[in-house]
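Chapter summary example.
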Amino acid sequence: MTDLLELLRTNPYPGRGIVVGKNHVYYWIMGRSANSRNRVFTITEDGIQTEAHDPSKLEDPSLIIYHPVRKVEGALIVTNGDQTDTIRDLGWHEGCMAREYEPDEPNFTPRISTFIREDGSFEISILKHNDGTCQRNLFCYEGVKEGEGYFISTYQGDGNPLPTFAGEPIKVTLPEPDQVWEALNDDNKVSLYANVDGDVRIWNKNLGD
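The structure predicted for these 209 residues follows.
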């Protein structure tokens, strides 16, 4: 099992990431450009959304402004883009099949998503570029042990173009939310969402967290 904190401390740019554990969900965003860094998480009635910290500096909002988290019929949807709404409207499998990676050539950022049910079972997907086509990988889990989680991110690390996450979601230790925030690269981290036993907290670098 991989130490999540060590994984994050040694990776300056995993991009956007999701961790699903027993009664724990973490989602964070990072950014290299001024536009990507100009964001905060805000709490909504059914989850959270990204917003521009300084609206006057917002450039292209298409891939950075979305609802990462929504509750629907007892389940929790967490994604790195507007596919949150597609999954809410069409259902898990149909929603994943209806979308593909982001059109941000040359990175072709993958779309990562999870669907967590009340019984503790969950699914994780990654939709990524593969030689001009979309490769859709879906992983199903009946649950996870106390203190453990599964991690997936958009990238394996920094680079130009950014290297897409490869392989299956990684089984990791499950540290406390503030430890995750501290472990993320201080230059690149933007916001963190943590849901622990239904208690939601958010961190925003732009607000001094």
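To summarize the output: Residues 178 and 203 are 9 Å apart (CA to CA).
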